[in-house]
Amino acid sequence: MASAKISHTDLLIIGAGPSGMMAAAWASQYNIKTRVIDKNHARISKGQADGLQVRTLEIFDSFGVVDEVWNRGYRDSEMCTWLSDGENGIHRSQRVLLQKVGISRYTSVAINQAVIEQTFLDLVSQKGRFHVERNMLPECLSLIESHPDDKDCYPINITVRHLHNPSPLRAPNGTGKDTRSHVQIKEDEDSDAAKEQQTGNAEAIESINAKYLLACDGAHSWTRRQLGLVMEGEQTDYVWGVIDIIPLTDFPDIRTACAIHSSTAGSILNIPREDRINRLYIQLGLEDNSNNRANINPRTMIETARKIMAPYTIDYKYCDWWSLYKIGQRISPKFSVSNRVFLAGDAVHTHSPKLGQGMNVSMQDAYNIGWKLGAVLTGTAKPSILSTYETERRQVALELLNADREVTRFYARNVHKTPSTPAAANGSEPETTNTPNFKLIRENLHAFLAGVGITYPPSILTSSQTTSPHALHIPLGARLPSHKILNQASARPIHLATLLPSNSHFRILIFSGNILSPSQASLIQNLTTPLESLIQKYPPSTIDILTIHSSPRTSVSIFDFPPFFRGPFDEVLGWDYDRIFVDDIAAHDSECGSAYQRLGIDKEKGCLVGVRPDQHVGWVGALGDVEGLGTWLGGFLVAKV
Amino acid sequence: MASAKISHTDLLIIGAGPSGMMAAAWASQYNIKTRVIDKNHARISKGQADGLQVRTLEIFDSFGVVDEVWNRGYRDSEMCTWLSDGENGIHRSQRVLLQKVGISRYTSVAINQAVIEQTFLDLVSQKGRFHVERNMLPECLSLIESHPDDKDCYPINITVRHLHNPSPLRAPNGTGKDTRSHVQIKEDEDSDAAKEQQTGNAEAIESINAKYLLACDGAHSWTRRQLGLVMEGEQTDYVWGVIDIIPLTDFPDIRTACAIHSSTAGSILNIPREDRINRLYIQLGLEDNSNNRANINPRTMIETARKIMAPYTIDYKYCDWWSLYKIGQRISPKFSVSNRVFLAGDAVHTHSPKLGQGMNVSMQDAYNIGWKLGAVLTGTAKPSILSTYETERRQVALELLNADREVTRFYARNVHKTPSTPAAANGSEPETTNTPNFKLIRENLHAFLAGVGITYPPSILTSSQTTSPHALHIPLGARLPSHKILNQASARPIHLATLLPSNSHFRILIFSGNILSPSQASLIQNLTTPLESLIQKYPPSTIDILTIHSSPRTSVSIFDFPPFFRGPFDEVLGWDYDRIFVDDIAAHDSECGSAYQRLGIDKEKGCLVGVRPDQHVGWVGALGDVEGLGTWLGGFLVAKV
C-alpha cells in the first residue's frame, strides 16, 4: 500500500449502471471534478432492466437524450389481464390503460437497459469532462468526521485496485444459446468470491480521496457492506424465470403488455420490447434450491410458459437473455452517512421487477442527489440540502416496496374463472371480488408508477404551503406538470418542461396573468426592482426568470414587458426571444391554450412559482410575493459575498 | 485526351447541392452504381436557400432525416403584412396563417442550406455506397442515340478534369465582415472564366461513360449549355439585396415572417431563421449596373432597411452572409433529352426567392426523377416511365413561375395606407381593392406552396380515374395525405406516411373497411389468391401490402386476417406486426381515429390504393378490383421472367 498512487476528486461515483450514469450526467452539467469507477470491463449488452416510466423519460428529455429510447422503445399504452376460462384455456378479462390521459407528454416504454446506459455514456462523453473508468475494484473504504461546511476536506478515502484483465466478475449473459454456463443467478452473485480470481497479476493500487461518495453499486453493494448497513425486509423462497425471446406464437395479445394467470400452471407477465423481442416473467412454481436451479433453462421455462398460455402456442428460436430471480422487498435503514456518503438504486432497495420500476426509481435517486451534490460542490447551495436526499428518496423506496408487495400478491393468486363471454373479450367485464383486479391496482398506483405523482415532503428545499390563492393545481414538492405554451415572439408551440432543462439553474416562473389589464401591467412593472435585486444576490446563471402570460398572443409583443423580463440585451445577439411565453391557442397545435387552466392558475391574476433544478416545485406564491420567494431561496442558496 | 482514364457508371449526377444530394439519396436506397461529381471543393457553409416547405419535410422524413431540420429550424406558422400608416411609419395590417390546418404533420421551416446539404451528405455517407467527388470539372459532353431498352448501352460520355487545388470557382460567401471582396453576385458568376484559373496544374482527365445523366448544376448549368437549351422568360433590371444578420431591433414582429411595405422607401421580406438569425430580402430600388453594385454593401443595405422599417430601428453587429440578385422568371424548354439526360432544379427554372420555393421545387424535381432512374436501372420498371419526369415536373415549374410573377408584382407595389386602427393591429382589418392582399395570394396558392397540392397528370404511372365509389378524397396523382392510425398488434399511434418510406417499394394499401361484417370478411378472404399471384409476378420487395381496417381495434386481432395479410411468417422472427393497422381512436393521442373519414373512404366498404415509391397515389379502386390494380402495375413494372 505504500506505493499506492494517491489522488483527489470532489465526487467519486462507484458503479456505471443507470444510476451511476444519471449522477454522472449531472456532474457533467455542473462541471465538478468527478471520477466514475466500475469494476466491470464493459457495460452490459443484454438483459437486466427494461422499463422506463414517464417521469424517467421526462428526465431524459431534460438532458436532451430522450429521442432514441422514445422512438426505438416499445410504447406501453395498455395492459391486458388474461384469466382461466374455467375449462382448459385462458381468456382476456381486462384491458387497462396503463396511464391516465394527460399526466405526461410521454407514455412508458420498454427497451434494453444497454441502450439506456449507452445513451448516458454518450452524453457524458460528449461533454468530455470525464469518462467512466472500468476494471476498478474498490477494496477499502474509510470515512472520517468532517464539518459539513469544510470545503477543503476530503473525508472519504477509497482504495481501488486497477484490474489488468477484463473483469470476469459477472458471467456473460445468455446470448441466444441455452448452455447452462450462461445462466446468471442474481442471488448467487458474489463479488468477494470473484475478486479472488484477480490476484494473479501485479495490479496498480490507487488511493482516492473524495469530498463526496455516491454508491450506485447495485443489489450487492460493496459500499453498503463496508458501511455495515444491513438490508431489512422479507424474501420468498420461490424462484421466477425471466427470459427475452423473439416469440413464435398465435397469442393475439403478444405485442400488448399482459398479465396471464392460468388455473393451475402459474402466471406470466408479458412485456413487448423493441425489435420484436418480448420479455416474459414466468412463475416457475419451484423453490429456490440447487437441484431446481440445475433443471431450469430457457427450454424448461418456455415449457412452463406454454402450459400457462394454453391453448395458445409459444416457442422461440432466438433467445436474447435469461435469468432467475427470487421475490423479496428489502430496504437499507439509511440512504446516506454523515451527508458525505450516499447510496442510490439497488444498493438501498430491492424488489420484484413486476412493476417495471427498478431502473426508474434508481435513476431518480441519482437524479435527486446528483444536482444537490453539484449545487453544493459549485458553492451554489448550502451543504444542509444534502440531508433532503434521504428524506425525499427513502420515502419513495418505501412506497415502491409497498406497491411491489401488493402486486406480488396479485401475481401469486391463481384464480379459477367462469367461461369467457363476449363482453369479457373486450375487457368490459364487470369486476367481482373474486377476480384479481389489475385495473384497480393500477389505478390506485398510477401516479406513483408513472413517477409524476412523487411528491417530496416539506423541507429546506420545498415550502409547506403556497402563499397564492390563484394557483390551485401546482403541486408543491412534485415535478411541475408540463403543458404546451407558445413562444411570444415566434408563436412556436413548446412544452413548458423544455424551458426547464437539467442544467443546474433554479427557475422563477412568472405567470403574469393578463397584462392587458392596467392593474396587472402595473404589478408586473413593480416586480422589476425587487426581482432584479433578488437575482443579483446570487452568482450569474443561478436563477432563470421565465414569463408566461395569458393575454391573447396577437395583442401583445415582448416589448410590452419591462426589459428585465426580456433578459439582458446582448450587444451582438440582441434580445433573448426565449424568455416570454404565452398560454394561447395555436392553429397548428390543438394541445396549446390550456396551461393556466390545467395548472389551476387564475388567468387574470397569475402567480409566482419557484422550481428546483430537478423540475420539482419548491415554492408557489402570489405574483407580488417576491419577499416570500426570497425567503425560500435564501434558505438554501449561498449569496454572493 | 489519349491518356484519359476511362470509367463507366450507371448514373452520373453533376452537382452536389440540394437537388443532386436528393437524387444521391435515392441512388443510395436503390444501390445503383452512381457517381456524384461537383466542381466545388466543399459544400456551401452559409447563405443561399433556407426555406423548407412541408412536402419537402415529408420527403426528408421518408428518408429518416427530418429531425434535425425540424427541431433546429425556425418554424414559420404565420406571416404579417406591414404597410405604411399614411404618415411616416408602418403598421401591421394582416396576420396570415401560412398554411391551412391539417394539410400536413409539418409546418414550413427556415434553416441554412448548409444544414440541409450536410444532412444528405451524412445520409449518403452512412449508406456507404458511394461518396461525393469534389473538384471535378466537366469539360465535354456527348450523347449518342440509343434504344431505351438497351440496358448495356452507355450513351453518355463526359470528360471531367480532376482539379488539384481547392476550387476558387465560387467566391467565399460573406462571413461577418463587410469587405467588398466577399460579395457574391449570382448573375456574374461564370464558370468559364473561373475555369481558366485552373490550367496551371497538370490535372488528371477522366472520361466517364454513363447510362444516365442527371444535371443538378444550378442556374448556370454547364450541362444545359452543352445541350444547347436556352432559358425562356423575362428578367427585371432592378437589383435586390439579401442579407443574413442577427438583428438588433425593436421591431415587434422580428421573429415572425413579415412582408413590410413602406410608402416610399421600398419593401422588405423578413424571414426569421435558426439561432436568432434573420434573413432580410431588401428592395434596393436600384438598377443593376456596375456603379450601383459597387456602392452596395451590408451597411448600405441596412440603411435602406432602416428607412423601410422606420420608426422602428434595426442594426446588426453580426452578418452571416449577403448577396445581390435580380428578379426574373425563366424556364428551360426541355427538362430531359432522349430520356437519358435529365436536368433538375435551378438548371431548368429560376425565379425570385420570395416564396421560399426554390430549394423545394428543385429537390422535388430530383426526388421525382431519382426513384424512376432507380427503378429502371434495377430492372423493376420499364424505361418508358422516364418520360413522366418532364410531364410531371415542367408543369410544376410553370406553376411556380406564375406564382412568383404574382408575388413579385405584390412586392413591387408601394401602397399608401390610411392610419392604423386597433383592428388593423390585430390583423383583422377588412381588405379593400387598394390593399396589397397578401392573405388572398397565400390562400390561392397555399396547397401549391406547401407542396402537398402538387398533382401529377394521368400517365403510365398515374391512372386517370378511380374505380371505387368509396374513396372520395384520395387525390389521384397527388401525394397520399397522412393521418394517424394505430398499429393493430401494439396500439402504437403512427402516421400513415411512416409506412411509406422512400425505399423503392410500391405499396398496395388495403383499406379493408369493417372486417367484422361477414360480407367484408369474405371479400378480404377472397382477395388473398388474386393479390398473392399479382405480387408474385414481380421480384421480392417490389410491392408492399399494408392493411388498414376500420373495425374497433379491441374487437379484432391480426389473427382475424388471412395469413397473407400478416406478411410472410419468418421462422426466427415470427409474424411481422407492422402489416396490419386500424383507424381507431387512441386514449393518449387525440389525432387518431379519423383517417377513413378524412380520406373520404367508406368505413364499411373500404377501397384499394396503389402508391408509387414517391408517396404519390397512382391508382384507386374498389376493394375487389385486383384486376384493375394489376393492369395499372402491369403498365410499368417488369414482370419476373
From TrEMBL, chains A, B:
Question: What is the top-level taxon of the source organism?
Answer: Eukaryota
Q: Which UniProt keywords apply?
A: FAD, Flavoprotein, Oxidoreductase
Q: Ranges for the FAD-binding domain?
A: 9-401
Q: Which Gene3D superfamilies match?
A: 3.40.30.20, D-Amino Acid Oxidase, subunit A, domain 2 (3.30.9.10), FAD/NAD(P)-binding domain (3.50.50.60)
Cite the SUPFAM superfamilies for this sequence: FAD-linked reductases, C-terminal domain, FAD/NAD(P)-binding domain, Thioredoxin-like
Q: Which residues form the Phenol hydroxylase-like C-terminal dimerisation domain?
A: 454-639
GO molecular function list: FAD binding; oxidoreductase activity, acting on paired donors, with incorporation or reduction of molecular oxygen, NAD(P)H as one donor, and incorporation of one atom of oxygen
User: What Pfam families does UniProt report for this protein, alphabetically?
Assistant: FAD_binding_3, Phe_hydrox_dim
Q: Per its UniProt record, what PANTHER family does this chain match?
A: 2-MONOOXYGENASE, PUTATIVE (AFU_ORTHOLOGUE AFUA_1G13660)-RELATED, TRK SYSTEM POTASSIUM UPTAKE PROTEIN
Family of the protein in this entry = Belongs to the PheA/TfdB FAD monooxygenase family.
Name-wise, this protein is: Phenol 2-monooxygenase
Please give the organism: Cladonia borealis
